């Protein structure tokens, strides 16, 4: 029984990373109607920026999150304004090709800068944790879950209560009607992509504290973000939170309870979940009918 509880708790803690990864992906997909294949590349940029700040300036990875988020927001804003905005109304095939190409550029630039060596962020409390009733709670994972939930709450509050958030939701609902009432589509698109990139940067920072990183380490997170959004449902931050936490639990239990499954089966598990959800409930657990 204790083992099961431990795995459930670990799944929820790991799910915090998936929540952070999924929020930005869901926002960009829901508003810009772009499946951003460069999302994993943006995640790993955030991881490397966290590593640079830690190794060069000894800044705690959780304290560097605002810096990383701001840097990724700038990268995302410029990337959308100068490049992706040119194909924003093109068929989805073109946006898939473009974002796939951007992802390849990101990976190769990181390879030129950092080579393929493994890097890791190891603050003094790495490997430490607390025990509650025989259940181990690693400090890194607990803090990561807390940051992910705070990020989700901040994004939801921003979208619901701010004027810019209202404009973003209006564009997501009907871009032509939003433009008729004076919304600057190009600016809102760039802001949305920038916010999505900032969320990816936060996720990258969390990932760098929990595992070693390489330039290509972000690629699986694009798939996992896709699964999280499909599982929870596109259109609400709360749905992404549910999807991320549930995905973390299912992945952890599958790897633990099924003989022969290990970390190498993570993508296979993700695909299996994706297929089942699309077959049974295509709009996700909390998705709104169109």
TrEMBL record:
<keyword id="KW-1003">Cell membrane</keyword>
<feature type="transmembrane region" description="Helical">
    <location>
        <begin position="39"/>
        <end position="57"/>
    </location>
</feature>
<comment type="similarity">
    <text>Belongs to the binding-protein-dependent transport system permease family. LivHM subfamily.</text>
</comment>
<feature type="transmembrane region" description="Helical">
    <location>
        <begin position="261"/>
        <end position="280"/>
    </location>
</feature>
<keyword id="KW-0812">Transmembrane</keyword>
<feature type="transmembrane region" description="Helical">
    <location>
        <begin position="63"/>
        <end position="80"/>
    </location>
</feature>
<feature type="transmembrane region" description="Helical">
    <location>
        <begin position="188"/>
        <end position="213"/>
    </location>
</feature>
<dbReference type="InterPro" id="IPR001851">
    <property type="entry name" value="ABC_transp_permease"/>
</dbReference>
<feature type="transmembrane region" description="Helical">
    <location>
        <begin position="225"/>
        <end position="249"/>
    </location>
</feature>
<feature type="transmembrane region" description="Helical">
    <location>
        <begin position="139"/>
        <end position="160"/>
    </location>
</feature>
<keyword id="KW-0813">Transport</keyword>
<dbReference type="GO" id="GO:0006865">
    <property type="term" value="P:amino acid transport"/>
</dbReference>
<feature type="transmembrane region" description="Helical">
    <location>
        <begin position="92"/>
        <end position="114"/>
    </location>
</feature>
<feature type="transmembrane region" description="Helical">
    <location>
        <begin position="12"/>
        <end position="32"/>
    </location>
</feature>
<dbReference type="GO" id="GO:0005886">
    <property type="term" value="C:plasma membrane"/>
</dbReference>
<keyword id="KW-0029">Amino-acid transport</keyword>
<keyword id="KW-1133">Transmembrane helix</keyword>
<dbReference type="InterPro" id="IPR052157">
    <property type="entry name" value="BCAA_transport_permease"/>
</dbReference>
<dbReference type="GO" id="GO:0022857">
    <property type="term" value="F:transmembrane transporter activity"/>
</dbReference>
<dbReference type="Pfam" id="PF02653">
    <property type="entry name" value="BPD_transp_2"/>
</dbReference>
<protein>
    <submittedName>
        <fullName>Branched-chain amino acid ABC transporter permease</fullName>
    </submittedName>
</protein>
<keyword id="KW-0472">Membrane</keyword>
């Amino acid at each position: 029984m204790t083992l099961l509880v431990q795995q459930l708790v670990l799944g929820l803690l790991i799910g915090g990373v998936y929540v952070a990864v999924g929020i930005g992906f869901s926002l960009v997909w829901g508003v810009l109607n772009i499946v951003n294949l460069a999302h994993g590349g943006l995640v790993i940029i955030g991881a490397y920026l966290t590593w640079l700040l830690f190794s060069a300036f000894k800044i705690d990875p959780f304290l560097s999150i605002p810096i990383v988020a701001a840097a990724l927001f700038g990268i995302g804003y410029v990337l959308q304004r100068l490049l992706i905005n040119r194909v924003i109304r093109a068929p989805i095939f073109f946006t898939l090709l473009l974002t796939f190409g951007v992802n390849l550029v990101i990976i190769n630039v990181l390879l030129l800068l950092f080579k393929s060596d493994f890097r890791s962020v190891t603050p003094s409390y790495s490997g430490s944790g607390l025990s509650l009733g025989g259940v181990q709670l690693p400090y890194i994972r607990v803090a990561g879950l807390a940051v992910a939930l705070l990020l989700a709450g901040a994004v939801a509050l921003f979208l619901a209560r701010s004027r810019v958030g209202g404009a973003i939701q209006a564009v997501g609902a009907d871009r032509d009607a939003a433009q008729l009432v004076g919304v600057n589509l190009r600016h809102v698109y760039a802001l949305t992509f920038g916010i999505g990139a900032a969320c990816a940067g936060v996720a990258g920072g969390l990932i760098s504290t929990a595992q070693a990183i390489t330039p290509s380490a972000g690629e699986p997170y694009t798939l996992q973000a896709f699964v999280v959004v499909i599982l929870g449902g596109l259109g609400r931050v709360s749905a992404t939170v549910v999807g991320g936490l549930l995905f973390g639990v299912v992945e952890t239990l599958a790897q633990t309870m099924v003989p022969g499954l290990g970390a190498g089966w993570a993508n296979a598990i993700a695909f299996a979940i994706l297929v089942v959800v699309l077959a049974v409930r295509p709009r996700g657990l909390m998705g709104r009918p169109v």
